[in-house]
Amino acid sequence: MRIDINLASQPYEDAQRFWTSWGTGLALLCLATTLLGFMATTRFINASHERKEIADMESVIARFDQEKAQAEATLNRPQNRVVRDRSRFLNEIFARKAFSWTRLFEDLERVMPAHLHVVSIHPDLSKDNNIEIKMVVGGDNSEQARDLVRKMEASKRFKDTRIDSERTREDREGAGNTDRVTFDISTLYVPSDETGAASGVN
Question: What does the pLDDT look like over 80-100, one tens digit per residue?
């Protein structure tokens, strides 16, 4: 029988296995470090590109604002006010021709809640040449008006709808007025491309 005896002063260690394990771990660590460095560099480059794009967009917007200010200054000159006023007048005429009472009431009927009705309505042109509708509606409670505002905002025909004021009916106003609450509502009207059969604003 053969017996192997270790006569060395230190216990036996498998050096090859030790260096293989450490080498593998070190390689994985280097790979992870390289990957993190690559990701950090990529993000830095992308952020630089985004900052450059934002700066370019801000520069374009600033240039447009400057051109707009120059154009407005030119139009506001005394010798150009006639042209400016005529242009606004023509835009107003075109917008009024595109307006249809029939289509407006059809669009309002689609969003008008039950027990709420229009008391008066007045279309006009805003400073941006949009059709602005100011109307008074009457009903039983304020929730009906808020429901109307929500439905108008969800519609494609109305935007920037808001309640300007709310009034509660007093008993002395007479028995003929059955509305408990009336509301002043403002909105921007976006008519469809189709032209109605009704006449324009007079």
Answer: 777 777 677 666 756 666 678
